[in-house]
């Protein structure tokens, strides 16, 4: 893998997702200088950090490495999404609304997301967003478990949160 091509890809992905070098560094526990070095081709991320970057940007390791063929370039050149509203939800409890795609709705129902007012919106991303919520453990009526998962950002059609009275 050419370090300079990877560096350019890392810059495009970071900017497309609206992150500064410092924000990316904090999310994957490295220094800002390390991110700068990777972006300028003065090194490449080790496999564990490359996997974290791929997860952060909602892409596969193949796409990050430039091995996904033509799809990689089409993906990177999609128009940027406006994430400012979703970013304001980060760290807050809310209720999510999903697109009426059958598979997305079925997954949400099965996973206990529909009607769950205690979803924590953790992180907004151009392709994937990260949430956390509690649900009943399988087969256990009174035992809860906390689930953290990624959801496709394109399937989110709305979010509501309770505003505290004055």
Low-confidence stretches: 69-78
Q: How does the overall form come out from the CA principal axes?
A: elongated
Beta-strand percent range = 15-25%
Kindly report the spatial arrangement of strands forming the biggest sheet: 4-3-2-1-5
Largest sheet: 5 strands, antiparallel
- State the total count of DSSP E strands: 5
Structural class assignment: alpha+beta
Secondary-structure element series: HHHHHHHEHEEEE
Head-to-tail CA distance between termini: 56 Å
What is the overall pLDDT average? 76
If you had to describe this structure to a student in words, what would you say it looks like?
The structure is a single chain. The chain is α+β, with helices and mostly antiparallel strands. The chain contains 8 helices and 5 strands; from the N terminus they run αααααααβαββββ. It has helices spanning 3-16, 21-28, 32-39, 47-57, 61-65, 70-76, 84-89, 102-111, and strands at 92-98, 119-123, 128-136, 144-152, 156-160. A 5-stranded antiparallel β-sheet has the order 4-3-2-1-5. β3 and β4 form a beta hairpin. The longest helix is centred in the N-terminal third of the chain and has 14 residues, at 3-16. It is elongated. The termini are far apart. The model is unreliable at 69-78 (pLDDT under 50).
Which helices and strands, and how do they pair?
Elements: H1 3-16, H2 21-28, H3 32-39, H4 47-57, H5 61-65, H6 70-76, H7 84-89, E1 92-98, H8 102-111, E2 119-123, E3 128-136, E4 144-152, E5 156-160
Antiparallel strand pairs: 1-2, 1-5, 2-3, 3-4
Helix pairs in contact: 2-3
């Amino acid at each position: 893998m050419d370090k300079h091509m990877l560096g350019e890809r890392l810059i495009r992905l970071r900017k497309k997702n609206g992150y500064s070098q410092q924000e990316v560094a904090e999310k994957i526990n490295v220094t800002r200088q390390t991110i700068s070095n990777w972006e300028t081709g003065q090194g490449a991320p080790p496999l564990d950090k490359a996997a974290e970057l791929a997860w952060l940007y909602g892409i596969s390791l193949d796409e990050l490495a430039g091995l996904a063929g033509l799809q990689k370039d089409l993906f990177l050149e999609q128009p940027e999404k406006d994430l400012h509203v979703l970013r304001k939800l980060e760290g807050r409890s809310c209720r999510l609304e999903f697109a009426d795609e059958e598979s997305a709705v079925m997954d949400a129902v099965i996973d206990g997301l529909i009607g769950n007012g205690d979803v924590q919106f953790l992180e907004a991303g151009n392709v994937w967003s990260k949430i956390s919520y509690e649900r009943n453990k399988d087969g256990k009526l009174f035992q809860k478990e906390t689930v953290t998962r990624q959801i496709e950002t394109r399937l989110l059609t709305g979010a509501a949160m309770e505003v505290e009275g004055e």
